[in-house]
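Table S2 (text version). Query chain:
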Amino acid sequence: MEPLNANEITLSDRAKILIVDDREDNLLSIETILENGNYQFVRALSGKAALKILLHQHDFTLILMDVQMPDMNGFETASLIYQREKLKHIPIIFITAHNYSDEQVFEGYKVGAIDYIYKPINPRLLRFKVGVFAEMYQKNHQLLLHESKLKEMNASLEREIEERRISEEKVRQLNYQLLENNKNLKDTIEELDRFAYVASHDLQEPLRKIMVFSDKLLTCQSEGLPEEMQRYMDKIIRSSQRMQKLINDLLIFSRKDSPRLLFEEVSLSGVIAEVLSDMEVEIERQGAHVTVGELPLLWANVSQMRQLFQNLISNAIKFHKPGLPPAVSIYCDNGNVSLLDDPQTHCCIVVEDNGIGFDERYAEEIFVVFKRLHSYHEFEGSGVGLSICKKIVDAHNGRISAIGKPEHGSRFFIELPLAKSGINALNNSKLNRVSG
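Corresponding structure-token output:
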């Protein structure tokens, strides 16, 4: 550790020297020799005076003490000084005009002296010896400061370690609780799945009887039933049909995805052609017009793709504006969705209609099971169809989103993975467009 320069020493860090001598001229002489050393001097004209000073001040760097003093000599004073624990760290240099024998010198060392300076005082020797002890004091002072800082840092580190230990214990407990909660949640979900499936399945039988016997009663007694009763029977049958649709949708929604679900190369154009063929009666009844653009090959489950697009097309036709024939467009447009993962491996299928649309505040909610934006008196349905769509798309590691505006139609964006040959076809299509 480098010693401090004089300019770096504050007043409290200056070496403080106690000079003990019964003669004023000796005190002045010593101070004059050391005056350029940036020291702080305290005078004592006797051993007793020195002891009184040391009762209240313990921060001396060095004591320079004359041996020959009246009443109490330097050896006696030193002996009393070192009896106090707080003063044992202060080195004492005896100043004497006598050339003591070895036995007398040893007596001085025995009471605590560290060195002697003989009169007449050699200024260079005095400055050197005092400078050595001043430097030692400064280094010791620095070490004490560093020690204090290290103790503070160590205490802070210990607190931090303890806090970290407590935090880690809390994290461990939270992880354990999370695992327990996950297990309980999994058990609950499985139980709910079983309940939904069993409940839905068990509801089918009495519902079928209600529908069958209501239909028979209406058929057999149609001529004899009052008009109001026939209307009531029609309501019973329609309500039963809605209930059956709801139960079927619940069965689909609650059914777990099979780990053996077959994924293969699927022609989306072929799937939609089959869907439109199945919906031919409904399309004609509503006077709907459905246009289908060029669509890619997908890596998907064919039956789930059929169900996905049947629900979307059915919704597009169902939610049409009164007096305006439904118009539905289905096409591929990868540049239309910023969320697309990778146009090289995924495609974006758009299902667009000219229907009643919806407020975009509900763009996320429409995929929530049983969430309806309209009363079933206005539009029939169970409120499960779009939830099933989202479940199917999630099972294919895709995404589904929608945008719309009231009375201005809606657009559904379905992002799905391409089959390998579909990727090649897509790239070839891009090249043809560039060359054309």
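Notes on Table S2: The chain has a mean pLDDT of 78. The CA atoms of residues 61 and 146 lie 19 Å apart.
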